[in-house]
């Protein structure tokens, strides 16, 4: 069950728990509408945002790629010098070697670490995610209104069995981002993940509009004092918050989510 969701009010969710070591950060989600965006290399999956390279391209496409880069990086050259440099690179295929690839990998890594990400899911009642991300069901799940612009800009994850192949000659910047930051291994597909991203300000704390957060689901093992803390944090919010309780189903290995 998706609490309060219908086709007119699609929702995305975030599994959390009350982290006593970062209590202020947790509380400010409710009191100051703040979320923390890490970069992909801080995620728990060491395979996240992995990729492989290909430089397969026609000579004409390669020439266009090199022209663009030489104009940007070697602006002291005149046109004749640039064309000679490009012709020599193509002749030597100096772009197609391990040193050049290592340099490109380093640049892509810099880009990845410079983009803040916030993971969401389409599924609020997954037993595994409650176990992994909500302290064995002792935590909570945030409910976001996907119609709000801040949430609506999230992108859906693509799941593959093999690393995506990044071709710096053929792929646009947006395509490279999709292949790195929005692609994961197939075994994670049960999470039905979406990601918010910030490539301008990068990782760190972001403020969201208060109306984007519409509910909180309490885990089936969450303590009453922890529930009371969240309710207290929500007291002075400008917009209404709905509260729900996750319960163990009586006959199946599943959860039922009911309004409080």
Helix count equals 8
What is the 3D shape?
A: elongated
Low-confidence stretches: none
Structural class: alpha/beta
Strand segment count: 14
Order of helices and strands: EHEEHHHEHEHEEEHEEEEHEE
The multimeric state of the shown protein is single chain
- The fraction of residues assigned to DSSP E strands is 15-25%
Q: How are strands sequenced across the largest beta sheet? A: 1-5-12-13-14
User: What composes the largest sheet?
Assistant: 5 strands, mixed
Number of structural domains:
2
Give Rg in angstroms. 23 Å
Mean pLDDT: 88
Helix content: 25-40%
Account of the protein in words:
This protein is an alpha/beta fold and 260 residues long. The protein folds into 2 domains: 11-48 and 116-259, no CATH class; 52-113, no CATH class. Helices cover 32% and strands 24% of the residues. The chain has 8 helices and 14 strands. The protein has a 5-stranded mixed beta sheet with strand order 1-5-12-13-14, with helices on one face. A hairpin with a 6-residue loop joins strand 13 and strand 14. Helix 2 packs across helix 3. The radius of gyration is 23 Å and the shape is elongated. The model has no long low-confidence stretch (mean pLDDT 88).
């Amino acid at each position: 069950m998706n609490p309060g969701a219908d086709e007119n009010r699609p929702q995305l969710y975030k599994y959390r728990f009350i982290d006593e070591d970062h209590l202020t950060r947790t509380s400010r989600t409710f009191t100051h509408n703040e979320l923390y965006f890490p970069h992909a290399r801080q995620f728990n999956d060491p395979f996240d945002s992995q990729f492989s390279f290909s430089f397969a391209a026609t000579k004409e496409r390669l020439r266009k790629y090199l022209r663009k880069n030489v104009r940007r990086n070697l602006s002291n050259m005149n046109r004749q010098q640039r064309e000679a440099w490009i012709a020599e690179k193509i002749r030597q295929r100096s772009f197609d070697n391990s040193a050049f690839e290592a340099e490109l990998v380093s640049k892509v890594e810099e880009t990845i670490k410079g983009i803040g990400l916030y993971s969401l899911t389409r599924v609020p009642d997954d037993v595994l995610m409650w176990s992994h991300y909500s302290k064995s069901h002792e935590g909570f799940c945030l409910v976001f209104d996907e119609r709000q612009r801040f949430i609506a800009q999230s992108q859906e994850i693509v799941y593959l069995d093999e690393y995506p192949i990044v071709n710096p000659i053929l792929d646009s910047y947006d395509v490279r981002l999709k292949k790195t930051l929005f692609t994961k291994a197939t075994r994670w597909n049960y999470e039905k993940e979406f990601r918010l991203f910030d490539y301008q300000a990068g990782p760190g704390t972001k403020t969201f509009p208060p109306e984007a957060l519409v509910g909180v689901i309490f885990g089936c093992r969450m303590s009453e004092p922890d529930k009371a803390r969240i309710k207290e944090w929500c007291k002075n919010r400008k917009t209404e918050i709905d509260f729900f309780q996750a319960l163990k189903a009586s006959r199946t290995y599943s959860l039922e989510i009911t309004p409080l």
